[in-house]
Design brief:
There is one protein chain. The chain is of the alpha/beta class. It has three domains: 94 residues, 3-Layer(aba) Sandwich (Udp-n-acetylmuramoylalanyl-d-glutamate--2,6- Diaminopimelate Ligase, Chain: A, domain 1), CATH 3.40.1390.10; 228 residues, Mur-like, catalytic domain (UDP-N-acetylmuramoyl-L-alanine:D-glutamate ligase), CATH 3.40.1190; 152 residues, Alpha-Beta Complex (Protein-Tyrosine Phosphatase, Chain A). The chain contains 15 helices and 24 strands. An eleven-stranded mixed sheet has the order 9-8-7-10-6-11-12-13-14-15-16, sandwiched between helices. Strands 17-18-22-19-20-21 form a six-stranded mixed sheet, with helices on both faces. Strand 11, helix 7 and strand 12 form a beta-alpha-beta unit. It is globular. The termini are far apart.
Length: 488
Amino acid sequence: MKLTQLLKNLEYTFVNEADADIRDIVYDSRKAAPGTAFVCLKGYTSDGHKFAKSAVEKGASALVISDDLDFDVPENVAVVKVDNTRYALALMSTELFGNPANELKTVAITGTKGKTTTTAMIAEIFEHAGIKTGTIGTLGIVYGGSTYKTDNTTPESYEIQKAMRDMINAGCGAMVIEASSIGLKHHRLAGTTFDVGVFTNFGDDHIGGVEHKDMEEYLYCKSLLFRQVKNAAANCDDPKYIDITKDFKGKVHTFGFSEDAELRAKNDRLLSDDGFIGVHFETEGAKELSLDVGVPGIFNVYNALAAISAVSFFDIPDAAIVEGLRVAHVKGRVEPVKVPGNYSLLIDYAHNAMSMENVLTTLRQYEPHRLITMFGAGGNRPKVRRFEMGETSGRLSDLSVITEDNSRFEDVMDIIEDIKTGLHKTDGKYVVVPNRKEAIRYCMKNAEDGDIIVLAGKGHEDYQEIKGVKYHMDERELIAEIIEEEKL
């Protein structure tokens, strides 16, 4: 593809004009090669302009810059100057991969909380409607049963465009993405017009450091999404929805509990039955549905409403919504695992006191026969985390089962002793089972009717790190092995 074709939607000037054929775009100089355009991105700690010479030495056919270079570029290397190289990368990547969003149903979700869960819910609804769906977000790029790790919730624009093209090639008809404020701030979503934009809620987060200087900037960056969507849905119970969606040119479809919402929730209640833990609610207004959502916590009614609102812009049967929401879950986030017996077994990523407090407090609301928490703590990390986790579990759990996590270069028993220090500040009962599989076995063999058991700490991770080596370990596989071994 000619360089000028990649640049067709940008304002630019040639510093070195050369008729370059470009087969790929890179922003890491180590990946530069003949036929590549190297885009000089400015990061928090580095500046791609400093690596432009290295990219040329590796054979890059073109450079895209925003600042002047401090070396003489060979005449056969094109040099293009733009105002913002991140914005340029987004529009060039869109062209390189053939505007893939035009071939997919696309939904982008922004908000302080709920993006990951809402993404999973929408994807599950699409799948139940017979539409293969890919997602991009906290868990990485996910489609076709595979997960590809990313560095950020909203990855770089090149990765997004490539992922959409790969999804299409894999047979996907839809894509759902978490649109973080940082991703929007850095133009990672530029160049794409989404079919639907969704706003979940707004709160105090990501302020200071290298993220947002204040709440005003944080809100503004989230609002940028609604300049590039065809349809919009927003939680009208959050008063910030007006500011977030102010730049949307059409009608904003609203959801919530308030009478002003077009899609309203009512008769919400916690639901726990035969291992199923979630919430029940009904909707009125734009849709009349009766729903059981398989994710614990009343707050997930809002996430389900967001998902229903998003898919309502497409021709999706109500049955797909009902069934999709019943089974939707986020891998490693209070993820239910089907087991024999009348108890509930959940896998969760909670690996510090705050996240453990949130999960256990939510599950306490279900009034289980017993709340049992199995957990360990990471090695080569501050010991205070272990004390705090022990104290939190001792206070909120009926029984704590202490075991290993990623011990790294520490002895597991030393870590367990630190956890016990926190437990001893409470009256909480506990047992110690150092081997994680055996700890899971202990929980399952001693489960009683109505128990809720949480396997905390690993979540979506499928490895265990010991002495610098990552060994494969997926708790779902361990549970299946235990069921087979014990003939449960």
